[in-house]
């Protein structure tokens, strides 16, 4: 067997073990030498011990890497090893990249130009629209969107990328053949057709809580920057942001309503120095790419298109707060249309909601 198959075998035996797996192979000099090591040699490894070494050796004796590679092929699942030339460049540069990455779909060199968009599983309508719009605008400019296919912001980011026929990659905390959450089956199929679904966990691996923080380092590792849209102060999205900082990547955040608990995570990041993001142009500027897309990035030189409802409400606003009830009366529109238009105006940066459902114009008529 060649080294790729030995690496594959170890990934089956120690999925998600990153640092420990690298240390084990480095100790013996190659994945093959580690595979052929006896129990006594394995027991001598710090932190492993005789009991664990026995268990590892027993599982190893029952695993045939060649057969597993054939099973992967029959399932339409590919794998790439860290030593392969087509291993993702961004991921290869982090401290503890997975030695083997399983995937369905296609990985491309162009995916190096990528941004992770992550956030809460229970977002507000504002958060969903912002995540989807940012993903749509960024993929239209040629960037790949990375996320975790979780409910909420992650799914909105993937959908935004797909809406512009752009590339997107989902990083799973389970096997690449396992749909989680289950309602994302159709979304997962679309992602595979327009990018890739990847995981360091072998096929059949079921989602467990500990696997998601582990996979978050891959989300940030595949990306040049991580953008957080709505997240509580303690959340997986902030774990991903922490990984990004450790990996030397940029961290960005979208501001939100100050009374919304889901704004606390992004606002904390902004206070700590994360770039405040209001649109795709800000992302390009932070990454130093604005000169690569001068026409697209010059949104400040174009009037933002507004619907009839948005124009009507925007004309009623000023720097003096106006209540929602008053806006409904003065606009002569149905309450649900007023609410929807105000939400879009806020997303475009044209209005701001104050406590008590009062609204003001931000002073910006450009986006």
From TrEMBL:
Similarity section: Belongs to the DprA/Smf family.
Any one of the GO BP annotations: DNA-mediated transformation
Positions of the Smf/DprA SLOG domain: 79-287
Domain DprA winged helix per the UniProt entry, residue ranges: 308-357
Top-level division of the source organism's lineage: Bacteria
Protein name as annotated: Uncharacterized protein
Residues forming coiled coils: none
Gene3D superfamilies the record matches: 3.40.50.450, Winged helix-like DNA-binding domain superfamily/Winged helix DNA-binding domain
């Amino acid at each position: 067997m060649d080294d790729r198959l030995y690496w594959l075998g170890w990934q089956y035996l120690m999925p998600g073990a990153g640092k420990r797996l690298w240390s084990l192979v480095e100790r013996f000099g190659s994945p093959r030498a580690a595979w052929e090591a006896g129990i006594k040699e394995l027991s001598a490894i710090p932190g492993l011990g005789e009991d664990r070494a026995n268990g590892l050796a027993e599982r190893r004796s029952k695993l045939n890497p060649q057969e597993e590679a054939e099973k992967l092929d029959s399932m339409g699942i590919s794998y790439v090893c860290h030593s392969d030339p087509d291993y993702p460049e961004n991921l290869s540069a982090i401290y503890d990249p997975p030695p083997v990455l399983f995937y369905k779909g296609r990985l491309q060199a162009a995916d190096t130009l990528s941004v992770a968009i992550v956030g809460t599983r229970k977002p507000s309508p504002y958060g969903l629209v912002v995540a989807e719009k940012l993903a749509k605008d960024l993929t239209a400019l040629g960037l790949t969107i990375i996320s975790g296919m979780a409910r909420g912001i992650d799914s909105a980011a993937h959908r935004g990328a797909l809406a512009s026929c752009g590339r997107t990659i989902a990083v799973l905390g389970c096997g690449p053949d396992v749909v989680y959450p289950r309602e994302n089956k159709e979304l997962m199929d679309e992602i595979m057709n327009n990018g890739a679904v990847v995981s360091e966990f072998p096929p059949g691996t079921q989602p467990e809580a500990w696997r998601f923080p582990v996979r978050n380092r891959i989300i940030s590792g595949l990306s040049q920057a991580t953008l957080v849209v709505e997240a509580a102060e303690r959340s997986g999205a902030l774990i991903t942001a922490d990984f990004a900082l450790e990996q030397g990547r940029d961290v960005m955040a979208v501001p939100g309503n100050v009374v919304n608990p889901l704004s606390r995570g992004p606002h904390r990041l902004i206070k700590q120095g994360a770039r405040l993001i209001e649109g795709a142009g800000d992302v390009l500027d932070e990454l130093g790419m604005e000169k690569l897309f001068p026409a697209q990035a010059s949104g400040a030189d174009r009037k933002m298109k507004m619907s009839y409802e948005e124009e009507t409400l925007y004309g009623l606003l000023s720097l003096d707060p106006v209540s929602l009830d008053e806006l409904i009366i003065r606009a002569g529109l149905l309450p649900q249309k007023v609410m929807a238009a105000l939400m879009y105006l806020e997303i475009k940066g044209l209005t701001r909601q104050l406590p008590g459902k009062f609204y003001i114009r931000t002073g910006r008529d450009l986006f």
